[in-house]
Design goal:
single chain, 7 helices, globular
Length: 161
């Protein structure tokens, strides 16, 4: 039974990824805002469906509860990020946000399959970076003299290289 489920989800994942990609391109062809919003909502469905199927496969093969808990934490983080990101950046493209969350979740899936401890470490770092960068617009709005700091940012950027 597990082998049948694995085979079915393998093809469903591939089909959902193709549909997700198609919705990325059809977003630009859509004539009205309602159709674009519909495409974006379908993308979100595909993202979470792919994520769920992959973690269901992991759980069925390994039979460890830690995969379910890790899955739920990732879903929580990604949903919260989508909400917070759109609150902070009022005019952000949902298409970019969807693509970012999609790639992040695929990365989580790949790391979890390779090494669970490494995946936890990466998820903690990724989550910290996601939420830290979400609040940059608030900081930039508070700092009125940010244009005068160009030398500071240039030197800091070179130091991080």
């Amino acid at each position: 039974m597990i082998r049948i489920f694995t085979a079915i989800t393998k093809y469903l994942t591939l089909i959902f990824m193709a549909l997700y990609t198609f919705k990325c391109f059809s977003y630009f062809v859509a004539k009205n805002k309602k159709k674009r919003t519909s495409n974006l909502n379908k993308q979100v469905f595909y993202i979470f469906a792919i994520h769920l199927m992959c973690y269901m496969k992991l759980f069925l093969w390994k039979h460890e509860l830690k995969f379910v808990l890790f899955y739920l934490s990732q879903v929580f983080v990604c949903v919260m990020y989508m909400v917070i990101f759109h609150q902070c950046y009022k005019n952000v493209s949902r298409l970019i946000t969807n693509n970012m969350v999609f790639l992040l979740m695929i990365g989580y899936i790949m790391l979890t399959r390779l090494d669970f401890q490494l995946a936890i470490r990466q998820a903690v770092m990724g989550t910290g970076a996601l939420f830290a960068t979400s609040f940059i617009p608030f900081i930039l709005r508070r700092l009125k003299n940010i244009r005068k700091w160009n030398v500071f940012f240039g030197v800091t950027g070179l130091m991080f290289l």
